[in-house]
Amino acid sequence: MRELEKRLMKHIDLLVERYPSLETAKEDIIKAYLLMEECYGNGGKLLVTGNGGSAADAEHIVGELMKGFKMPRKPEADFAEKLVAENQELGSVLAENLQGALPAIALDGHSALSTAYMNDCEPLLCPAGKWVWQGGRCVPWHFYERKQQKRPLCGNDSSCQGDKGHRLDGRKR
Asked: Which among 159, 100, 52, 132 is positioned nearest to 151, based on CA atoms?
């Protein structure tokens, strides 16, 4: 087992030990972690949304990802050096206090955009629209569950889980 896998399992096991009800979701938690690891490893960003209390949760996790949670994320050394070279006093303060981010966007925010879209367009599609505008590829069906068919809005087969690069009009990107 790779060292990363050992460390991941150590954290997952500790989480399940603290919250035994998560035992049934253990595999899903691992899959979610691996998906986020791949996303960030490829230079991507996490798009998060929710409704009601889940919207507050989405905003909260984005805040945790965009700044240090338990450990501060210092800027890369070359970036810190450039800041100091540009302005010794201010650059030093920035290099010491800025934190690197795991890019994430809460799609449930943006109240002006949301209300404008819901007023002028189909309100139920607002989260899906934000997904696409922020760089999401295919819109998974769970954003807007059709009564008759569970399929992505891109119109492709039901096996599409938002990862096939489809556009809303069904063409490939």
From this structure: 159
CB atoms within 10 A of CB 168: 15
Torsion of CA 73, 75, 76, 79, to 10 degrees: 170
Look at residue 110 and tell me whether its pLDDT is greater than 60: yes
Supply the pLDDT for residue 169. Answer: 40
Q: Indicate yes or no: pTM above 0.90.
A: no
Residue 161 and residue 140: Cα distance in Å, rounded? 5
At 129-156, the pLDDT tens digits run 776 676 655 444 344 333 334 444 444 4
Q: Which residue has the tokens 């970036």?
A: 79
Write the DSSP symbol of residue 94.
H
Both tokens of 82, joined, read 């450039």
Distances in Å between the alpha carbon of 49 and those of 11, 12, 71, 105, 108? 25, 24, 25, 8, 5
Token readout for 169 is 């009009």
Structure tokens at 13: 């096991």
